[in-house]
Amino acid sequence: MELLIQDNKKTITISDSIFKQNFNTSLVHQVITAYSACKRQNTSAQKTRSLVSGSGKKPWRQKGTGRARAGSTKSPIWRSGGVTFTSKFKKYRQKINKKMYKGALKSIFSELIRQKRLILMDQIIIELPKTKLLLKKIKEISSKKILIIISEFNQNLLLSARNLHNVNIHYVYNINPVNLINFDYTIITTNAIKKIEGILECNTKKNY
Q1: Could you give the 3-state DSSP secondary structure of residue 87?
Q2: What is the pLDDT of residues 148-199, one digit of tens each?
């Protein structure tokens, strides 16, 4: 299929097997759910009576003291004792194989092209690291949330975008399905889309 380059009005040929896929809702949902689950911190935990530090010695004899019976200072009814029903570290990670992950990316990119939310540019040139210069370039596209995908380091572009809360820049190898669907428009360079095309080719082992 042919895709128009916005800044010079030329076209490039991209693979139909990657950028002309049907939108697989269930696959995209599964991949996004798994990706989001992997980002959970899993840091909530308390100590049970077996984990609390201290002696297991009976604090006083069973009878004759006038006090309530006690078998351990680690008991949950004691101050600084263990917790009865604790929350423990939990693994939320879900397995997603490479074929599924790449299939979801193909589906999302294809849908972005169909909805005209993927904007192809030959290159993004910012003469100076100034936010207003970047705003001037993207003002013609939209004032909404914009994701910019680049293939190589661009210092002026990165410095120009760091103060913009609605503009995010990612390298080709750092893109993920969550970012692709969360932004209203995605700007991508021709070099970047060719690299993505190579990465998403399932038959080439070196791209895994």
Answers
A1: coil
A2: 999 888 899 999 999 888 899 999 988 999 999 999 999 999 999 999 999 8
* Strand intervals (E) in the chain: 2-4, 11-13, 118-121, 146-150, 167-171, 185-189
CB 172 within 8 A of CB 151: yes
Q: Residue 133, SS3? A: helix
Q: Which of 72, 40, 34, 31 is nearest to 54 (CA)?
A: 72
Question: Sheet harboring 167-171: ordered strands across?
Answer: 118-121, 185-189, 146-150, 167-171
CA dihedral 57, 63, 66, 70 (to 10 degrees): 30
Model-level pTM?
Answer: 0.77
Share of the chain above pLDDT 70, in %: 96
SS3 7: coil
Per the CB < 8 A criterion, the answer to whether 112 and 181 are in contact is no
- The residues near 194 (Cβ < 8 Å, ≥ 6 apart) are none
